[in-house]
Amino acid sequence: MTVAEILKKEFPESFISEHHDYGDETVFIQKSNIVTVMRFLKYDARTSFEQLLDLCGVDYQGETPRFEVVYHLYSLSKKKRLRIRVKVDETDLKINTIIPVWEIADWFEREAWDMYGIYFEGHPNLKRLLTWEGFVGHPLRKDYPVNKRQPIPEPLDIV
Amino acid sequence: MDLGKFFGDTILTTRMKDLVNWGRKYSLWPMPYGTACCAIEFMGAVSAMHDISRFGAEVVRFSPRQSDLLLVMGTINYKQAPVLKKIYEQMCEPKWVVAVGACASSGGFYDNYSVIQGIDEVIPVHVYVPGCPPRPEQIMDAVIKIQKMIDPKGALD
Protein backbone atom coordinates (compact mmCIF):
# COMPACT_ATOMS: atom_id res chain seq x y z
CA MET A 1 0.00 0.00 0.00
CA THR A 2 1.49 3.32 -1.02
CA VAL A 3 1.37 6.40 1.17
CA ALA A 4 -1.13 7.99 -1.20
CA GLU A 5 -3.45 5.01 -0.82
CA ILE A 6 -3.16 5.15 2.96
CA LEU A 7 -4.00 8.85 2.94
CA LYS A 8 -6.94 8.30 0.61
CA LYS A 9 -8.30 5.64 2.96
CA GLU A 10 -7.70 7.57 6.18
CA PHE A 11 -8.69 11.05 4.99
CA PRO A 12 -11.16 10.66 2.13
CA GLU A 13 -12.51 14.18 2.62
CA SER A 14 -9.03 15.85 2.62
CA PHE A 15 -7.45 13.84 -0.18
CA ILE A 16 -7.66 15.58 -3.56
CA SER A 17 -5.33 13.73 -5.92
CA GLU A 18 -1.93 12.10 -6.21
CA HIS A 19 0.68 11.44 -8.85
CA HIS A 20 3.97 9.60 -8.82
CA ASP A 21 6.88 9.18 -11.17
CA TYR A 22 10.07 7.23 -10.53
CA GLY A 23 9.17 6.65 -6.88
CA ASP A 24 8.51 10.33 -6.35
CA GLU A 25 5.14 10.49 -4.62
CA THR A 26 3.08 13.67 -4.51
CA VAL A 27 -0.27 14.13 -2.80
CA PHE A 28 -2.61 17.12 -2.99
CA ILE A 29 -4.35 17.79 0.32
CA GLN A 30 -7.17 20.12 1.34
CA LYS A 31 -5.93 23.18 3.19
CA SER A 32 -8.31 22.94 6.14
CA ASN A 33 -7.06 19.59 7.41
CA ILE A 34 -3.32 20.01 6.94
CA VAL A 35 -2.22 19.72 10.58
CA THR A 36 -4.15 16.49 11.21
CA VAL A 37 -2.79 14.91 8.03
CA MET A 38 0.77 15.97 8.89
CA ARG A 39 0.50 14.62 12.42
CA PHE A 40 -0.78 11.33 11.03
CA LEU A 41 2.08 11.14 8.51
CA LYS A 42 4.63 11.70 11.26
CA TYR A 43 3.31 9.35 13.93
CA ASP A 44 1.53 6.55 12.09
CA ALA A 45 3.68 3.40 11.92
CA ARG A 46 2.89 2.80 8.24
CA THR A 47 4.17 6.21 7.14
CA SER A 48 6.46 7.57 9.93
CA PHE A 49 7.81 10.61 8.13
CA GLU A 50 9.92 11.87 11.01
CA GLN A 51 11.54 14.69 9.11
CA LEU A 52 10.31 17.82 7.36
CA LEU A 53 12.97 18.51 4.75
CA ASP A 54 11.54 21.65 3.25
CA LEU A 55 8.52 23.87 3.14
CA CYS A 56 8.12 26.51 0.50
CA GLY A 57 5.60 28.66 -1.28
CA VAL A 58 4.89 28.71 -5.01
CA ASP A 59 3.15 31.40 -7.03
CA TYR A 60 1.11 30.14 -10.01
CA GLN A 61 0.03 33.53 -11.25
CA GLY A 62 -3.06 33.36 -13.45
CA GLU A 63 -4.37 30.16 -11.90
CA THR A 64 -6.99 29.79 -9.20
CA PRO A 65 -6.12 29.06 -6.48
CA ARG A 66 -3.02 31.13 -7.10
CA PHE A 67 -0.60 30.00 -4.39
CA GLU A 68 0.63 26.68 -3.17
CA VAL A 69 2.51 25.47 -0.11
CA VAL A 70 4.76 22.49 -0.74
CA TYR A 71 5.99 20.23 2.06
CA HIS A 72 8.82 17.76 1.51
CA LEU A 73 8.86 14.90 3.98
CA TYR A 74 11.44 12.22 4.58
CA SER A 75 11.17 9.03 6.56
CA LEU A 76 14.47 8.17 8.22
CA SER A 77 13.28 4.70 9.21
CA LYS A 78 11.72 3.77 5.88
CA LYS A 79 14.07 5.78 3.62
CA LYS A 80 11.10 7.21 1.77
CA ARG A 81 10.19 10.64 0.50
CA LEU A 82 6.84 12.33 0.09
CA ARG A 83 5.71 15.66 -1.29
CA ILE A 84 2.52 17.23 0.03
CA ARG A 85 1.02 20.12 -1.94
CA VAL A 86 -1.65 22.42 -0.62
CA LYS A 87 -3.44 25.02 -2.71
CA VAL A 88 -3.92 28.42 -1.10
CA ASP A 89 -6.07 31.03 -2.74
CA GLU A 90 -5.22 34.71 -3.04
CA THR A 91 -8.49 35.72 -1.37
CA ASP A 92 -7.78 33.59 1.70
CA LEU A 93 -4.04 33.38 2.32
CA LYS A 94 -4.36 31.76 5.73
CA ILE A 95 -3.15 28.25 6.42
CA ASN A 96 -2.54 26.55 9.76
CA THR A 97 1.02 26.33 10.99
CA ILE A 98 2.60 22.90 11.34
CA ILE A 99 5.08 23.94 14.03
CA PRO A 100 3.26 21.70 16.59
CA VAL A 101 4.23 18.74 14.38
CA TRP A 102 7.70 19.79 13.22
CA GLU A 103 9.41 22.68 14.99
CA ILE A 104 11.74 23.17 12.04
CA ALA A 105 8.79 24.63 10.13
CA ASP A 106 9.28 27.88 12.07
CA TRP A 107 11.80 29.54 9.75
CA PHE A 108 10.44 27.87 6.61
CA GLU A 109 7.04 29.38 7.28
CA ARG A 110 8.58 32.76 8.01
CA GLU A 111 10.36 32.58 4.65
CA ALA A 112 7.14 31.67 2.82
CA TRP A 113 5.42 34.56 4.56
CA ASP A 114 8.25 36.92 3.64
CA MET A 115 8.51 35.92 0.01
CA TYR A 116 4.88 35.13 -0.90
CA GLY A 117 2.72 36.59 1.86
CA ILE A 118 1.19 33.27 2.85
CA TYR A 119 -0.09 33.75 6.38
CA PHE A 120 0.52 30.81 8.73
CA GLU A 121 -2.08 30.94 11.47
CA GLY A 122 -0.84 29.99 14.91
CA HIS A 123 2.82 30.75 14.15
CA PRO A 124 4.40 32.17 17.33
CA ASN A 125 6.66 34.70 15.59
CA LEU A 126 5.60 35.30 11.99
CA LYS A 127 8.09 38.02 11.07
CA ARG A 128 10.03 38.55 7.87
CA LEU A 129 13.03 36.25 7.69
CA LEU A 130 15.21 37.33 4.76
CA THR A 131 14.17 40.84 3.88
CA TRP A 132 14.52 43.69 6.32
CA GLU A 133 12.19 45.58 8.59
CA GLY A 134 10.23 48.13 6.60
CA PHE A 135 10.16 46.08 3.41
CA VAL A 136 6.85 46.52 1.60
CA GLY A 137 5.42 43.67 -0.45
CA HIS A 138 6.49 40.10 -1.10
CA PRO A 139 9.39 39.94 -3.57
CA LEU A 140 9.00 36.42 -5.01
CA ARG A 141 5.44 37.01 -6.15
CA LYS A 142 5.30 37.02 -9.91
CA ASP A 143 3.62 40.42 -9.94
CA TYR A 144 6.33 42.07 -7.82
CA PRO A 145 7.95 44.66 -10.15
CA VAL A 146 11.49 43.67 -11.14
CA ASN A 147 12.77 47.23 -10.95
CA LYS A 148 11.06 48.15 -7.71
CA ARG A 149 13.52 49.44 -5.13
CA GLN A 150 12.80 49.79 -1.44
CA PRO A 151 14.15 52.60 0.76
CA ILE A 152 17.65 51.89 2.05
CA PRO A 153 17.56 51.07 5.79
CA GLU A 154 19.42 53.39 8.17
CA PRO A 155 22.15 52.15 10.53
CA LEU A 156 20.82 50.86 13.82
CA ASP A 157 22.35 51.99 17.08
CA ILE A 158 24.33 48.88 17.91
CA VAL A 159 26.38 49.19 21.08
CA MET B 1 72.34 83.59 6.34
CA ASP B 2 72.60 80.99 3.63
CA LEU B 3 71.26 77.83 5.30
CA GLY B 4 72.31 75.71 2.38
CA LYS B 5 75.93 76.71 2.90
CA PHE B 6 75.66 76.12 6.62
CA PHE B 7 74.00 72.64 6.58
CA GLY B 8 75.26 71.39 3.23
CA ASP B 9 73.17 68.52 1.79
CA THR B 10 72.11 67.18 5.19
CA ILE B 11 68.65 68.81 5.09
CA LEU B 12 65.79 69.18 2.64
CA THR B 13 63.32 72.03 2.76
CA THR B 14 59.65 71.57 1.90
CA ARG B 15 56.21 72.76 2.91
CA MET B 16 54.46 71.04 5.80
CA LYS B 17 51.40 70.10 3.75
CA ASP B 18 53.52 68.54 1.05
CA LEU B 19 55.36 66.50 3.62
CA VAL B 20 52.13 65.24 5.21
CA ASN B 21 50.63 64.47 1.82
CA TRP B 22 53.74 62.60 0.82
CA GLY B 23 53.38 60.50 3.95
CA ARG B 24 49.70 59.83 3.37
CA LYS B 25 50.21 58.99 -0.24
CA TYR B 26 52.62 56.18 0.44
CA SER B 27 51.02 54.80 3.58
CA LEU B 28 47.40 54.19 2.63
CA TRP B 29 46.03 51.64 5.06
CA PRO B 30 43.26 49.72 3.36
CA MET B 31 40.22 48.38 5.15
CA PRO B 32 38.94 45.47 3.03
CA TYR B 33 35.16 45.17 2.98
CA GLY B 34 35.06 41.97 1.00
CA THR B 35 31.76 40.22 0.34
CA ALA B 36 32.48 38.33 -2.87
CA CYS B 37 35.08 37.16 -5.38
CA CYS B 38 36.61 40.63 -5.80
CA ALA B 39 38.09 40.16 -2.33
CA ILE B 40 39.95 37.11 -3.63
CA GLU B 41 41.50 39.31 -6.31
CA PHE B 42 42.51 41.74 -3.58
CA MET B 43 44.34 38.88 -1.85
CA GLY B 44 46.16 38.40 -5.13
CA ALA B 45 47.00 42.11 -5.20
CA VAL B 46 48.42 41.98 -1.67
CA SER B 47 50.46 38.81 -2.01
CA ALA B 48 53.88 38.34 -3.56
CA MET B 49 53.01 38.17 -7.25
CA HIS B 50 51.60 41.69 -7.51
CA ASP B 51 52.63 43.02 -4.11
CA ILE B 52 50.69 46.16 -3.33
CA SER B 53 53.31 47.08 -0.70
CA ARG B 54 55.33 48.57 -3.54
CA PHE B 55 52.81 51.39 -3.30
CA GLY B 56 52.81 51.43 0.47
CA ALA B 57 49.28 50.10 0.82
CA GLU B 58 49.95 46.65 2.23
CA VAL B 59 49.08 47.28 5.90
CA VAL B 60 45.61 45.80 5.77
CA ARG B 61 43.57 46.82 8.82
CA PHE B 62 40.40 45.07 9.79
CA SER B 63 39.32 47.96 11.93
CA PRO B 64 37.84 51.06 10.30
CA ARG B 65 39.38 53.20 13.07
CA GLN B 66 42.88 52.41 11.88
CA SER B 67 42.46 52.73 8.15
CA ASP B 68 41.95 55.48 5.61
CA LEU B 69 41.17 53.56 2.40
CA LEU B 70 37.90 51.65 2.27
CA LEU B 71 37.91 48.96 -0.41
CA VAL B 72 34.37 47.71 -1.00
CA MET B 73 34.77 44.46 -2.87
CA GLY B 74 31.63 42.58 -3.72
CA THR B 75 27.85 42.63 -3.74
CA ILE B 76 26.26 44.95 -1.20
CA ASN B 77 22.63 44.24 -0.49
CA TYR B 78 20.07 46.34 1.32
CA LYS B 79 20.55 44.60 4.63
CA GLN B 80 24.28 45.30 4.51
CA ALA B 81 23.95 48.93 3.49
CA PRO B 82 23.55 50.25 7.07
CA VAL B 83 26.58 48.23 8.17
CA LEU B 84 28.70 49.63 5.34
CA LYS B 85 27.57 53.15 6.14
CA LYS B 86 28.42 52.68 9.80
CA ILE B 87 31.88 51.39 8.94
CA TYR B 88 32.46 54.33 6.63
CA GLU B 89 31.40 56.74 9.36
CA GLN B 90 33.75 55.08 11.84
CA MET B 91 36.79 55.77 9.67
CA CYS B 92 38.83 58.84 10.58
CA GLU B 93 39.27 61.71 8.14
CA PRO B 94 40.77 61.94 5.62
CA LYS B 95 39.36 58.82 3.99
CA TRP B 96 38.93 57.45 0.52
CA VAL B 97 36.60 54.83 -0.93
CA VAL B 98 37.16 52.48 -3.86
CA ALA B 99 34.28 50.50 -5.33
CA VAL B 100 35.98 47.36 -6.61
CA GLY B 101 34.16 45.40 -9.29
CA ALA B 102 30.85 45.56 -11.09
CA CYS B 103 28.67 44.74 -8.06
CA ALA B 104 30.00 47.46 -5.80
CA SER B 105 30.00 49.99 -8.65
CA SER B 106 26.57 49.32 -10.14
CA GLY B 107 25.00 46.23 -8.63
CA GLY B 108 26.45 44.14 -11.45
CA PHE B 109 24.06 41.56 -12.81
CA TYR B 110 22.09 41.53 -9.56
CA ASP B 111 19.31 43.75 -10.83
CA ASN B 112 16.79 42.70 -8.20
CA TYR B 113 14.95 43.66 -5.03
CA SER B 114 17.73 42.89 -2.58
CA VAL B 115 20.92 44.39 -4.03
CA ILE B 116 22.04 48.03 -3.87
CA GLN B 117 22.62 49.34 -7.39
CA GLY B 118 26.07 50.72 -6.62
CA ILE B 119 27.42 51.67 -3.19
CA ASP B 120 27.35 55.35 -4.14
CA GLU B 121 23.71 55.21 -3.07
CA VAL B 122 25.01 54.85 0.49
CA ILE B 123 28.51 56.35 0.75
CA PRO B 124 30.67 58.60 -1.46
CA VAL B 125 33.00 56.81 -3.87
CA HIS B 126 36.30 58.17 -5.24
CA VAL B 127 37.37 55.47 -7.69
CA TYR B 128 35.31 52.84 -9.49
CA VAL B 129 37.06 49.69 -10.68
CA PRO B 130 35.36 47.80 -13.53
CA GLY B 131 35.57 44.05 -13.95
CA CYS B 132 33.88 40.93 -12.71
CA PRO B 133 36.13 40.41 -10.86
CA PRO B 134 38.85 42.93 -11.77
CA ARG B 135 42.47 41.87 -12.15
CA PRO B 136 44.88 42.69 -9.29
CA GLU B 137 46.53 45.20 -11.65
CA GLN B 138 43.27 47.13 -11.75
CA ILE B 139 43.14 47.27 -7.95
CA MET B 140 46.70 48.63 -7.95
CA ASP B 141 45.64 51.13 -10.60
CA ALA B 142 42.88 52.28 -8.26
CA VAL B 143 45.42 52.78 -5.45
CA ILE B 144 47.60 54.85 -7.78
CA LYS B 145 44.58 56.94 -8.78
CA ILE B 146 43.86 57.57 -5.10
CA GLN B 147 47.49 58.59 -4.59
CA LYS B 148 47.18 61.08 -7.43
CA MET B 149 44.03 62.40 -5.77
CA ILE B 150 45.90 62.97 -2.50
CA ASP B 151 48.82 64.70 -4.21
CA PRO B 152 47.49 68.18 -5.02
CA LYS B 153 45.22 68.42 -2.00
CA GLY B 154 46.27 70.42 0.99
CA ALA B 155 46.29 68.12 3.98
CA LEU B 156 46.37 70.85 6.58
CA ASP B 157 43.94 73.23 4.89
What gyration radius of chain B follows from the Cα positions, in whole Å?
A: 18 Å
CATH class membership of chain B: Alpha Beta
Helix content of chain B: 25-40%
By DSSP (H or I, 4+ residues per run), the number of helices of chain A equals 3
Strand segment tally of chain B: 4
Please describe what this structure looks like.
The complex is a heterodimer of chains A (159) and B (157). Chain A is α/β, with parallel strands linked by helices and 159 residues long. The mean pLDDT of chain A is 90. Helices cover 19% and strands 29% of the residues of chain A. Chain A is built from three helices and seven strands. In chain A, the strands form two sheets. A five-stranded mixed beta sheet of chain A has the order 1-2-5-4-3. In chain A, strands 6-7 form a two-stranded parallel sheet. By secondary structure, chain B is α/β, with parallel strands linked by helices. Chain B has one domain (28-150): Rossmann fold (3-Layer(aba) Sandwich). Chain B has helices at residues 3-7, 16-25, 38-46, 81-90, 101-106, 136-150; strands spanning 30-34, 69-73, 96-100, 127-129. In chain B, strands 1-2-3-4 form a four-stranded parallel beta sheet. In chain B, strand 2 (69-73), helix 4 and strand 3 (96-100) form a beta-alpha-beta unit. Chain B starts with a helix and ends in a 7-residue tail after the last helix. The A-B interface holds A 131-132, 139, 144, 146-150, 152-156, 158 and B 78-79, 81-83, 85-86, 89, 111-114, 116-117, 121-122.
